[in-house]
Design goal:
The protein is of the alpha/beta class. The chain has 10 helices and 13 strands. The strands form 4 sheets. Strands 2-1-3-4-6-7 form a 6-stranded mixed β-sheet, sandwiched between helices. A 3-stranded antiparallel β-sheet has the order 10-12-13. Strands 5-11 form a two-stranded antiparallel ribbon. The radius of gyration is 20 Å and the shape is globular. The N and C termini lie far apart (48 Å). The structure holds pyridoxal-5'-phosphate.
Length: 302
Amino acid sequence: ILSLKSLGVKSGDEVITAANTFYATAGAIVACGAKPVLVDVNDNYQIDETLIEKRITKKTKVIIPVYWGGGIPNIDKIIKIAKKHSLNVIEDSCMGIGGKFKKRHPGTFGDIGCFSFHPLKTINAIGDAGMLCTNNKKLYEWMKKYRNHGMRDRDNIDLWGINMRMQPLQCVVVLEGLKKINKVIQTRNLNAMYLDTHLKKFNKFIKIPERNKDNLETFALYMIRVEKRDKLINYLNKNNIEAKIHYPKPLCLQKPYLKYNDKYVSKNAIQQSKELITLPVHQYLSKDQMKFMINKISKFYN
Ligand SMILES: *Cc1c(COP(=O)(O)O)cnc(C)c1O
């Protein structure tokens, strides 16, 4: 909300984002009075940049690419499209913290990058917290003011603002967490590579996304597409493996979005919502636990 408002997004505007993102991306757009316009995703579960231009209208103001699951969208191409059409880019890098695209971190390509330290994220804050980053001094000053009641100082306001301040305890915890981010991402990558290697053997039933050497994914979520998804997840859950689905009903099919009567169909996002399964990949997993997981998946398909 803060990043969109700083760019002047308001009622009547349109903002483009991915059809499979978490509700917050679209909710923020709507909270600014604007309309979310969804674009379908590619086989890496990221916004398909080749489909963006068809969704741009005179009302479009911003593109919000999402680092979905900690994967990496084709951010250089998205920035090019935005430049060509004089649009701003806000990166929803909530799941991309610590990742890289060609040696550069998510959240540093667009006008503003957004991060979340919600308890389920790679770095958390013992409670809720978030972070924005920008190179734009004007946007930075505006956002700092707006999130603190528009105050210039104790006795003067420059604009009407609200309270979006982060609490000190959360700041302290996040700052400690950030010191460990590289190690955490490294461990998650090792776990993901272990799973990739062993799950490849079941390529008749399991589709693993292609891994691009230019990218350092964060594996906020380890997502694969599988046959007999619903049966598999039941079986894994019964065996105490915390497999999940992100999400069984994609954003483009959620009730408030359907009200827009958008004729555009996000085919891949809908198909993926029927096939995706998220397996544990976090930094506290042991090798035995991963072996156990692979064993159960092997048993299931045999
Ligand atoms: C978690 C998440 C959010 C929301 O973060 P909050 O801290 O709950 O506001 C937004 N977008 C994406 C992609 C996320 O993963």
